[in-house]
Write a structure and sequence with these properties.
heterodimer, A: mainly beta, Immunoglobulin-like, four-stranded antiparallel beta sheet, globular, B: mainly beta, six-stranded mixed beta sheet
Chain lengths: 113, 117
């Protein structure tokens, strides 16, 4: 069965530190990959997405993610975080092209000043 | 507004009562999704509507849960005989498939927080 896993449930780091959040999925076919972010008190919103082409994708607010097909991974990175990056981050995978998504459990990121 | 809206924003009900949650998707979006988010957990897929196709109900946790969508507009999620474990935030999202720049990106509503006493 398809699955999506996020390795860290809680991450605490200081401003200017680098961030990397892991996301792995299990599925042998084509996938579309997404990272969503939910800032405190706000809606879920799209951070970045990968459909095809360059496996390194850049999103909003300085985030990027790399799709490594051989590892079934789509890790999110930011070289230098800010306090405003405090949020919950969700990895999502569309398996095939049916429009049905599966989300990871989320990672709560807290950035301390 | 132009976003996905949901109502009510909060719902407190007694165990055993029925509740109905509403979602207004972005105009023109053919796909509509319902998710459940329990406290401290990820998003749990419930049901997916795509145009006039039969909905994918594979995520509905029991037959107490049902959802309808009128054409490509409003959707309602109904929970009958609510139980305490139904307490969660219910999120709706819509998407427009087939366009170059927004293919399958989901736009989320603010959610309905359901509390079953």
């Amino acid at each position: 069965a398809q699955s999506v896993s996020q390795h860290n449930h809680h991450v605490i780091l200081s401003e200017a530190a680098s961030l990397e959040l892991g996301c792995n999925y299990s599925y042998g076919g084509t996938v579309n990959l997404f990272w969503y972010v939910q800032y405190p008190g706000q809606h879920l919103q799209l951070l970045l997405k990968y459909f095809s082409g360059d496996p390194l994708v850049k999103g909003i607010k300085g985030f990027e993610a790399e799709f490594i097909k051989s590892k079934f991974s789509f890790n999110l990175r930011k070289p230098s975080v800010q306090w405003s990056d405090t949020a919950e981050y969700f990895c999502a995978v569309e398996f095939g092209s049916w429009g049905k998504f599966q989300f990871g459990a989320g990672t709560q990121v807290v950035v301390t000043p | 507004g132009a976003g996905v809206s949901q109502s009510p924003s909060n719902k407190v009900t007694e165990k055993g009562k029925d509740v109905e949650l509403r979602c207004d998707p972005i105009s023109g979006h053919t796909a509509l999704y319902w998710y459940r988010q329990r406290l401290g957990q990820g998003l749990e897929f419930l049901i997916y509507f795509q145009g006039n196709s039969a909905p994918d109900k594979s995520g509905l946790p029991s037959d107490r849960f049902s959802a309808e969508r009128t054409g490509e507009s409003v959707s309602t999620l109904t929970i009958q005989r609510t139980q305490q474990e139904d307490s969660a935030v219910y999120l709706c999202a819509s998407s427009s498939s087939g366009t170059l720049y927004s293919y399958n990106e989901q736009f989320f509503g603010p959610g309905t927080r359901l509390t079953v006493l």
